[in-house]
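Progress note, project year one: complex with molybdenum atom.
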Amino acid sequence: MSSSIEDPSDDLSVTSPKTWAAGVPAVTHALEYSLGQTSVRRTALTLLNINQAEGIDCPGCAWPDGAPGKRHLNEYCENGAKHINDEATSRRVTRDFFREHSIAELDGMSDYWLNQQGRLTEPMVKRPGATHYEPIGWDEALSLLAAELVDSPDEALFYVSGRLSNEAAFLLQLFARAFGTNNLPDCSNMCHESSGFAMREALGTGKGSVSLDDIHHADLIFVVGQNSGTNHPRMLSALEETKRNGGQVVAVNTLPEAGLMRFKNPQKARGVIGRGTAVADQFVHIRAGGDLALFQALNRMLLEAEDGAPGTVLDHDFIRNHTTGFTDFAAYARKVAWEDLLEATGLPREEIEAVFDRVLKSKKIIVCWAMGLTQHKHGVPTIREVINFLMMRGNLGRPGTGACPVRGHSNVQGDRTMGVWEQMPQEFLDALEREFGFTPPTHHGLDAVNGIRAMYEGRAKVFLGVAGNFVRATPDSAVTEEAMRKCRLTAHISTKLNRSHTVCGDTALILPTLGRSDRDFQATGEQFVTVEDSMSEVHASRGKLPPASPDLLSEVAIISRTAHKTLGSTPPLPWEDFEKDYSTVRDRISRVVPGFEDFNARLARTGGFVLPNPVNQGVFPTPSGKAVFTLNEFTMPHVPEGHLLLQTLRSHDQWNTVWYTPNDRYRGVHNARRVVLVNPADLKDLGMADRDEVDLVSIWHDGTERRAQNFRVVGYPTSPGSAASYYPETNVLVPLDSVADFSNCPTSKGIVVRLEPARSITPGAV
Ligand SMILES: Nc1nc2c(c(=O)[nH]1)N[C@H]1C(S)=C(S)[C@@H](COP(=O)(O)OP(=O)(O)OC[C@H]3O[C@@H](n4cnc5c(=O)[nH]c(N)nc54)[C@H](O)[C@@H]3O)O[C@H]1N2
Ligand SMILES: Nc1nc2c(c(=O)[nH]1)N[C@H]1C(S)=C(S)[C@@H](COP(=O)(O)OP(=O)(O)OC[C@H]3O[C@@H](n4cnc5c(=O)[nH]c(N)nc54)[C@H](O)[C@@H]3O)O[C@H]1N2
Ligand code: SF4
Ligand SMILES: [Mo]
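Model obtained:
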């Protein structure tokens, strides 16, 4: 396998896309990967503990676990198993490794190769002008970091990825705000930010209102812009139960993803030998970016059906008692022309009518969505229109109904609850002030995109990344890398090596930390941490393995010590106590964050609890106290002649910026990642053929072009006019300024590109 930064695609092989997901091959692939990383004993230990009541929360996605009494012994999926054993690997990155490999050399290696080197084992520093990382003691490393955090607090960025525990996230935001800045960019800025903006405006809360039980008992579930079979695999078991209970599923996607079609549950005998369960009752093969129009069409049909049979279609009680803006919304919704809606969705009218039939027959509807909606320019209006759709028939707050943004990282929702957001509301800042006796800054901080701009322009000079891989997760790779290299100091608290460690500021620090699976001993004894999943369930996670190295510190310890060194005793906060005993952090959380009252005692008593969702209590914390119907201007992405709308997505075998193998099994793509999936009819129009070597060139309003070199074309049933390619190789194509309206989320699913014959066959720069 190639170790260079580019995967030359020489071994590309393509087989028919799979028409079903999971089953026995999924188990085999997970075990193969796990046993390639670590011993049978450690694999058994991680797998027996993953998602169990006293065990390790899966460090994969944020899909919830079953209720404690209903959990299987194997409460994990293929990708969760791979993911935890990628962390539990027996491979180690030592000081010898850094002596042998210069930073320039490491910079030329692929994301795969860097990750495969194993767990980081001791703190390392790159001094100004140095070519290599060298070992440094913890005390000196953290003093160095603290010493750089001296100037204006707003010149520092504190990036958080959704792997962080509640305890560590709470302390990090406390540190940043006590220091004097709200510069807390996070992975959510690039992920579900559009969901938060849309839902807060319409419902007064950014969180989903749905539980697993709701999923099981819905009449109709929409799965929109989400590849559940790969990215939230156990959602398929939940949908299987929905179907067993008589519910239906409509999948809306630009690609016919295997997991949306048929599922063979590897935990059930019938999933091993049978044909599995057909997941989607209807697959809606929508045009890229056409979802706003689809929901506008459904909403318009609801209004017309109500005209035909007044009082029977809409939920007038809900609309009257709980919402505002219905009249204006209805007037607006009736105006959008059918031809425009059909053109934007790319669907025949009968197909939308078939969806509408299911809607009319269903009393309990849930809409689930992910990046296929959030990462478009009009992601926020699209999600607002989804909420309009749910509100019209009162599909909110009742059992079996609701809005379900399916979150990515295992604790991304918890990190936000803990205050990691550059725009936390004033009530939260006031609560911090009451508890800790200092006045947090009130002006908004920098998000990911604005943080990159600030580093690029020299306004931000110190970058601390806590988990994640900032330079690969962010758009416009060339610009972002230059921005990072301009920093005075870049520091990362990480478990594994990644490209963010090789793209350094003048000084750079690698601060290696315990992972979820590692046991965590502090002065008062063994500690555990807590997380919140996509359905607002909070529970503990306890590491079970001996730590990857004796020189690792926990995230809580690193953050507490850095804060102490930076701030001294101004304000006077008990950083040492926080490190010794995480329950003291939870005591603070219980007094600052609503819903966490009596945190420690409730965890001990019940093992976990669900945070209250106002929507389910009939409360809408908007300024008017009611849910808001919104007017969402009809838009469709403009794609000039000869161009395609490119989405950058995940293969089946990667975790965000890190790929595990170069295969995308369900889509039938093997041994290559530099591929672009294009509809065969578009290929014909473009005068191109399957397997042609092309460069992808993105265009932007200011006339600039960005190029990603040497991709292989694969004819694929993506909807006409759209193309798909893997992230992060294609992040170089996403202009920094190409962001979703309102949420500032990079438009990773809507990049206008053209395909050009490859300029060279030698792999180019990223
Ligand atoms: N194994 C694995 N699991 C993961 C991750 C991982 O990398 N690997 N990442 C985690 C994270 S952080 C996140 S946020 C989630 C992401 O979960 P997903 O959102 O499922 O991830 P993507 O791969 O970005 O897939 C986007 C889906 O939207 C579809 N899509 C794209 N554009 C449109 C559109 O305009 N309309 C519609 N209707 N569909 C569209 C794509 O075809 C694709 O199926 O997964 C989490 N889980
Ligand atoms: N083009 C494009 N760009 C995208 C997306 C897209 O769909 N298309 N998706 C966006 C989305 S949804 C997201 S969420 C972001 C993801 O962005 P990030 O969250 O920043 O990226 P990850 O790849 O998840 O980060 C992997 C690194 O996290 C570190 N890590 C893993 N576990 C731990 C841990 O327990 N503790 C610590 N301290 N470190 C740990 C390891 O060092 C590992 O190398 O990317 C975004 N970028
Ligand atoms: S569905 Fe998500 S949380 Fe559950 S086991 Fe799989 S990766 Fe882990
Ligand atoms: Mo995400």
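Confidence is low (pLDDT under 50) at residues 762-766.
The two ends are 18 Å apart (CA to CA).
No further modelling is planned for this target in the current period.
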